[in-house]
Specification:
The chain is mainly beta. It has one domain: Clam (outer membrane lipoprotein receptor (LolB), chain A). The chain is built from 4 helices and 15 strands. The longest helix is centred in the first third of the chain and has 14 residues.
Length: about 270
């Protein structure tokens, strides 16, 4: 990763983390597969937007740290992330919109733009997660959409849990509930024979009619990169102004314009 992009990454938007499945004692009969299927499809149909204030703790090859983060997601493909300093000022803003990633680090006078792909997100996030899969995780949903009439969707008992499997385009996912309730507890997603990441959901709380997971952990292959995201507040399905996902270049002539995804690391003054 070139030095200019590393500087943006260091400003504070890194997304990834540890994903060991927590152990749980058997307190009740295992979840019913039909109940799990109904819950997942209901959450799928009822979730459109998410606003949250979260705390990120991350580790990876480039180091570790933590930051407060304001997250806004409008499914399926728009998001805004604002990283806050300890004083509550903005250290970095990033937006995903129309297949494009834009990043502005005002304190460093740097602005980056490039395609929103797994590769370009990987330069800023600890784990390179495909954009639309990442946004669904942030909204407390499984990485891939679930459709009631999809013959490739399977929901079956798996020991004390329920296992869910599905395919969407080039990607696949395997999901498991906890042993005592029908909400998802962990999962993994990949492409062909490649495992892209694993994740866990925890600390579910009633939020706007959903049993929302307030903790998300994501881990890359071989546990080289990890993230723990802990929401402090969450609001679902509030109207979101489309302008929120616009991030035009700043007018400050001192700002360096960086081409994200450029392997040569060139910058336009």
């Amino acid at each position: 990763m070139n030095a200019a992009v590393r500087a943006l990454a260091a400003a504070g938007i890194l997304v990834t983390a540890s994903c060991a499945a927590p152990s749980a004692s058997r307190l009740s009969p295992p979840p019913d597969p039909d109940q799990v299927r109904a819950r997942l499809l209901e959450d799928e149909a009822s979730t459109r937007t998410m606003r949250g204030l979260a705390r990120l703790e991350f580790t990876g090859p480039q180091g570790s740290g933590s930051a407060s983060q304001v997250v806004v997601v409008a499914l399926p493909d728009r998001a805004r992330f604002e990283t806050l300093t300890p004083l509550g000022t903005t250290a970095l803003v990033a937006t995903l919109r129309a297949g494009q990633l834009r990043v502005h680090a005002p304190l460093r006078h740097e602005y980056g733009v490039g395609p929103a792909t797994r590769e370009t997100l990987g330069q800023l996030l600890t784990v390179p997660v495909p954009p639309e899969l990442l946004l669904r995780l942030l909204a407390g949903l499984p990485p891939l959409p679930l459709r009631a009439g999809d013959p490739r969707l399977t929901v079956v008992g798996d020991g004390e849990a329920v296992r869910v499997e599905s395919v969407d385009g080039e990607y696949w996912q395997r999901l498991w509930t906890g042993v005592d309730e029908p909400g998802l507890a962990r999962g993994e997603a990949g492409r062909a024979s490649e495992l892209l990441f694993v994740f866990t959901f925890a600390d579910r709380q009633s939020t706007n009619g959903r049993n929302f997971p307030f903790e998300l952990r994501v881990e890359g292959p071989a546990a080289r990169s990890q993230l723990r995201l802990r929401y402090e507040r969450v609001q679902l399905n509030l109207p979101v102004d489309a302008d929120l996902f616009e991030l035009p270049p700043p007018s400050d002539p001192a700002t360096r314009i960086i081409e994200l995804g450029d392997a040569r690391g060139s910058a336009r003054e």
